[in-house]
Amino acid sequence: MEKKTLGWTNEKISPLILGSWEFGTPSIVDENSAIKVIQKSIELGINAIDTAESYGNGLSETIIGRAIGKFKREDLFIITKVSIDHLRYDDVLRACEGSLRRLNTSYIDLYLVHWPNHYVPIRETAKAMERLFSEGKIRYIGLSNFSLPLLREFREHLSKTDVAANELHYNVLFRDVEEEVLPYMLRENISLLAYDSLGLGYLIGRKEIRNEYRWYVLAREAYVKNLEPLVDEISLIAKEIDRTPAQIILNWLVSKDNVFAIFNTTKEDHLRENLGSLEWSLRDSDLKRLDEAVKKVVIDYFIR
């Protein structure tokens, strides 16, 4: 698998990053099945895994720690996140120790601030993250769900390193990041890690929704209307070029400079399908058709 360089670092990681929030939910996948998916992903060339201390209250990290033991640690790129309620200086340090223990590793490759906390000074969190960097417990600092002003502010409080990545909600439908934060990140060579890349299946026309996802889907349905033209166009393009809708959507992301797509899966066949999104490109005409289809979708964040 051809790797991409993570921002300004020299790290080569897979364009697709294995997400793991489902691994912390036993009702979705049991531990043994999760371990098998993680190990198969690595065997097939995915070297980057994304998790967080909040996923299953640490269960996701624990499962990953058990799964990666059979592989060389230096061949993997482990991403995890400190929770929004652990952003005080000492709390950041304690949270990192907990993640290191659960992941069964001596260092974290990329440590992200999961969400900004407006009740904790950014400087306090940044200094704690930089201490972890200086101590070698984390190799790179990153953010998640940080707007452009907050990203800039966080960077201002770093003196020994810089932000390597920002994990954001981004897919073929939700493109808000393209207005401000993504252009800035591209200029500064900061990578974007895109989550919700497949929209929990609604972008590929999946009708059956697990109870664990229903809250998300109901919220989305409240402010997204007329989604069908986009879903239909994705499906049509997929048929024309002998791909699947999921491969179309993931390719749309990973073909972009400095953008990586986080995907979640609990099944090997879906894993292999997603890998089929790599090392080819959509036609210019396909991209234009997707752009036009997105314009037909109504997104109204002001719910009446």
UniProtKB/TrEMBL annotation:
What superkingdom does the record give?
Archaea
One of the Pfam families matching this protein, by short name: Aldo_ket_red
Question: What SUPFAM superfamilies does the record tag this protein with?
Answer: NAD(P)-linked oxidoreductase (SSF51430)
Note the InterPro entries from the entry. AKR, Aldo/ket_reductase_CS, NAD(P)_OxRdtase_dom_sf, NADP_OxRdtase_dom
A single Gene Ontology MF term assigned here is: oxidoreductase activity
Membrane spanning residue stretches? none
**Can you name the source organism?**
Saccharolobus islandicus (strain M.16.4 / Kamchatka #3) (Sulfolobus islandicus)
NADP-dependent oxidoreductase domain: residues covered: 15-294
Q: What is this protein called?
A: Aldo/keto reductase
